[in-house]
Amino acid sequence: MLAEPQSARDLTGRFGGYRWRICALLFWATTVNYIDRQVLGVLAPALGRAYGWTQEDYGYIVAAFQIAYALGLVFCGRLIDKLGTRIGYALSIAVWSVAAMSHALARTVLAFIAARFVLGLGESGNFPAAVKTVAEWFPRRERAFATGLFNAGSNIGALIAPLAVPVVVALWGLRSGFLFTGVLDLAWLLTWLAIYRPPREHPRVTAQELAYIDSDAEGQSAPARRVGWRELLRHRQTWAFVAGKFLTDPVWWFLLFWLPKYLHHRFGLDLLALGAPLVAVYVLADCGSVAGGWLAGRLMRLGCSPNAARKGAMLTCALAVTPVVLTPWVHQLWLAVALIGLAAAAHQGWSANLFTTTSDLYPSRAVASVVGLGGFAGALSGAFVSTAVGFLLQTTGSYALLFVLAGGMYLAALAVIQLLAPRLAPVRLAAE
Questions:
Q1: Which residue from 6, 246, 310, 354 has the highest number of Cβ atoms inside 10 Å of its Cβ?
Q2: What is the pTM of this model?
Q3: Domains of the chain, each with CATH number or no CATH
């Protein structure tokens, strides 16, 4: 057997090779994605006072985004599988950047609902495109770590928003908070179109790096044909991913959109005072995203199977969420922030591994479609939960039940995943 070339071995270093520049682009896109969606949450207390929103009004506005996000994920996944990541990703960010800025024109609850709906459609392309890109550019043993890195952009975006938005609003008014991300969106779009190509077509990818990317690939010679939903839904592995997203995504949506309102309600924080606690939560979430991906990769390097490594990392994250049930009975702001931050970190570690199961189980031509189906389920359940949260808070004014349910969802989801997919065996799709 011929020895592996020295340069190929060098590329196994954690940050060697052009693929990490592509990962940086995915991180950037996910960051601006979350800045755009998080602006409303940061401004929610101020907008509520300015326009007289009730808790139910806000619940409907949030649900509009999630319903559109759910619908978009189903079709965006298939569209990206058909168009490819370069064009599909560019189209997605073009739509969501225009929709994000259009919030500045809204005056009524209905207008905000419309703007959020279009934003949800555009933003739904981010994760199917990003996960598909990781599947194309990284060998299996690096995918969870790469997914954790780009997924960390969600926390950076959620962190930047409470720091930047209050300053922008203080300088130029309430509506300017929805406009400042347009420059970031446009810069990413131009950069992506200028430099992105698939690895086999990219002039900056060496033969050695391409060999490394393909080093554990399975079925690379399979014909690239369209994979239908019916075919994907025949497999229990698809349902395992869908169930994981359905049960746990609403927890993240709750933290993302309702946390500023909770901190305002529980501790009386105004727009400027919200910055430090929200930053702390999302810094912790960022660490959790990277650590969750690293943990699964570390377990594999220690000899664990992909099944044991993924589920071991997910179990660790599920257990780390549970202390959040204590939050409603905590009277110190920073203790509450620590509990919520730990839950956010654990969710992001969970999410990095759950997303990566799709590229473990499916060929790259089907990854975006599977991610889209799971995202549809998660966003749809999130929309229902947001509406229910608005009704519950309008009726009782208490967040206690919400935190208790959030603390148990991940263990329940892991149990369902284990029942449906006791072994994360690769799916064999029907030949063309």
A1: 354
A2: 0.69
A3: 19-206+226-420 (1.20.1250.20)
